[in-house]
Amino acid sequence: MENLQMKSGFLPGLFDRRGRNKGKGPTPELEEEKMPEPKPSPLFTRLPDGLRNHFIAMAGEFVGTFLFLFFAFAGTQVANTPQTTTGSTSTNLPQGPNPAQLLYISLCFGFSLAVNAWIFFRISGGLFNPAVTLGLCLIGAVPFLRGGLIFIAQMLGAMASAGVVKTLFPGPLAVTTSLSGGTSKAQGLFIEMFLTAQLVFAIFMLAAEKHKGTFLAPVGIGLSLFIAELAGVYYTGGSLNPARSFGPCVANHSFPSEHWIYWVGPLLGSLVASGFFWFIKSAEYQTANPGQDFDDLEATAYHPEEDLTRPVVSPTAVLEPAASRDGASRTSKEGRSSSRLPTRALYGGRGSGEAKDGDADASATVHHKATLDG
């Protein structure tokens, strides 16, 4: 695998003439070529960067939403297939909840979201949901213009995935969302609202708020949808996503009378999550439970009883043994800093005048303070 090299151009394995010289010995040009980037297409290089980026984001959201809902719809179609004779067109589910069936559907949605969000987050953000898009626009993580464009892509992707599943799998499409178990429209509305609020807030804290575990955000987001589906599939179908409910209705050419709750409920949930996120941000939640993203050096230099700002420690700093730290008393930030860092690592600002003029390393390893938001 380590010897694999990617060549530039369109399908270089088929159309690259240099491949015809294989066996005649490597040319100097090929010897120097190590994983070159594909050449940008003139079609895209002529476009302004803003327009090109919007197009790429829309394409990513379309494909991502399609893949997410395709696998989720396919699993739901399998779970909802009645155990009857071949050729039956019944789509009625058995009375009462079927835990195995509900678990299967929840796993399909949760895992499909986790995988596809992990794939597409570098392309478009991996949103796949108009309610999530609205929430990220409200907190300023996504511009409203970009949000409107990827909303269109999400709706198209949902319709395409529902249509493909209906065509590929036998029997009628049985992935629509509807109220069941005696659930009223008001109950369904608030179920969708609270479940969507939980999902959107999970995305805010795991993906929008950058931290040491951000690279694992798709896993947490997928699990968030999984537990929401466990609670909501039986009563409302567990939509949490207007596109997820809209696509199958278009494919079936039928909109139930309660379809509106699958728009209003998720959008209200997005507003609730955005409001709570604004509340905790305005209250500086980082100071309530500080140090969650600190490494060992930062945790050692951190003393919340005196200063709640996050210490930015020199890369050359070393930890002292626990005994020496416990046995000495510290009376100032400068004293704490000098005891935990090499003699050339100092705090910046007015208190950093202890550096020698001739010390070249002192200016390169200045120890300064930064807020948790920075």
Automatic annotation (TrEMBL):
Region (Disordered): 1-42, 310-374
Subcellular locations according to the entry: Membrane
SUPFAM superfamilies: Aquaporin-like
Keywords: Glycoprotein, Membrane, Repeat, Transmembrane, Transmembrane helix, Transport
GO terms assigned for molecular function: water channel activity
Stored InterPro entries: Aquaporin-like, Aquaporin_transptr, MIP
Main location: membrane
Name of the protein in question: Aquaporin rerated protein, other eukaryote
Organism for this UniProt entry: Capronia epimyces CBS 606.96
